[in-house]
Design goal:
It is a single chain. The chain is α/β, with parallel strands linked by helices. It folds into 2 domains: 145 residues, 3-Layer(aba) Sandwich (Rossmann fold), CATH 3.40.50.1980; 144 residues, Rossmann fold. The protein is built from 11 helices and 8 strands. A 4-stranded parallel β-sheet has the order 2-1-3-4, with helices on both faces. Strands 6-5-7-8 form a 4-stranded parallel β-sheet. The longest helix is centred in the N-terminal third of the chain and has 26 residues. The radius of gyration is 23 Å and the shape is globular. 39% of the residues are buried.
Length: 334
């Protein structure tokens, strides 16, 4: 595949809760950044706005950040979607997509239902096509720094072609968005400095690109990971290998996708909790309390790094000192 002591536990749990609260507030901080208003000479009536339909709400939020008040954006999949992989649009949603001027899709086999019977006058922006991803690649492209940057530039070009009189406005919004992304990347690098060779395992590969950008090493058992990518059920040997990894505390973190309701996932998350390994739930659609994609990633990265940092500190504190039980060699004993 191509891929672009109980007391300490209690304190760690309290700190993790505080970190999660702070992380949620980060959504509000990034989301509070508004797009620039167009100049008076560029004012238009609501009827002239570009109608954008995104298959995923996180990509829809990016389209709104670039398009500002010159676009009307709606999304098909939302946080309430149970399983994006088995989703099929209803008649109303199909009509919604066909009436769009711009259809923003993820691609890479994730939302193939959006490609059926589209009229020729719809401008389709495919994230996968923009970055060169193919069916069979990891499709969770919204967590890729490079994919977000490429799509933001592509949307700026598309909107500028459709409303050329507002090209400067769209380009200004792009610069504002890029500034937020640069700040996010800087924060992610700074937070990661506290970690030492961080590792993670995942019940589903939803956060592969995010964890890669954060500098984490994936230690998910290979057999399990292959079954996950192939969309098949892992066999008993692979599940046992994963359970053994968790029981042996051979990972700093377990990533779980709560939208996948397989019994195997529940078994593995229970094993992680029993071994006192932090578990982070990451959905495939942006939660309602995050206004945009940048703020969602900021919230996740802060929570992930906070929990793993606490886990590594606890692990270090629990390990015996190298000097314990060992006579220190001094000049007098040589």
């Amino acid at each position: 595949m191509r891929t672009l002591g109980n007391g300490l536990h209690a304190i760690a749990a309290i700190l993790a809760g505080i970190a999660l609260i702070l992380g949620t507030s980060a959504c509000s901080w990034f989301g509070s950044r508004q797009t620039n208003e167009p100049t008076p000479n560029g004012s238009t009536t609501p009827a002239s706005k570009i109608t954008v339909v995104a298959t995923l709400n996180q990509w829809g939020s990016l389209a709104k950040q670039i398009g500002g008040n010159q676009v009307e954006v709606s999304s098909i999949l939302s946080p309430d979607t149970t399983n994006a992989h088995s989703f099929e649009p209803n008649a109303k949603q199909v009509t919604q997509m066909r009436k769009a001027q711009v259809l923003l899709t993820n691609g890479a086999g994730y939302d193939t239902w959006a490609d059926r019977s589209l009229p020729r006058n719809v401008t389709r922006v495919s994230v996968a096509d923009t970055v060169g991803a193919l069916d069979g690649d990891n499709p969770h492209l919204w967590f890729s720094r490079d994919a977000r940057q490429a799509v933001a530039r592509e949307l700026t070009e598309v909107f500028s072609r459709l409303l050329p009189e507002h090209k400067a406005y769209f380009e200004s919004n792009l610069k504002t968005w890029q500034s937020d992304e640069d700040e996010l990347e800087s924060q992610m690098r700074e937070r990661s400095k506290s970690l030492k060779d961080p590792t993670y395992a995942a019940t589903e590969d939803v956060a592969y690109y995010l964890m890669s950008d954060l500098g984490f090493r994936d230690v998910t058992p290979k057999g399990y990971a292959k079954a996950m990518l192939d969309g098949t059920e892992p066999d008993e040997k692979d599940i046992k290998a994963f359970s053994d990894l968790l029981q042996g505390r051979q990972t700093n973190l377990l990533i779980n996708n709560p939208q996948q309701s397989a019994q195997t996932d529940a078994t593995l998350t229970q094993a992680a909790h029993k071994a006192s390994i932090p578990v982070i739930d990451i959905t495939e659609q942006m939660p309602k309390d995050c206004k945009d994609l940048t703020s969602w990633i900021d919230t996740l990265s802060e929570s992930i790094i906070s929990k793993v940092s606490q886990e590594q500190e606890h692990e270090a504190a629990s390990s015996p000192s190298p000097s314990v039980g060992t006579q220190q060699e001094t000049p007098a004993t040589k």
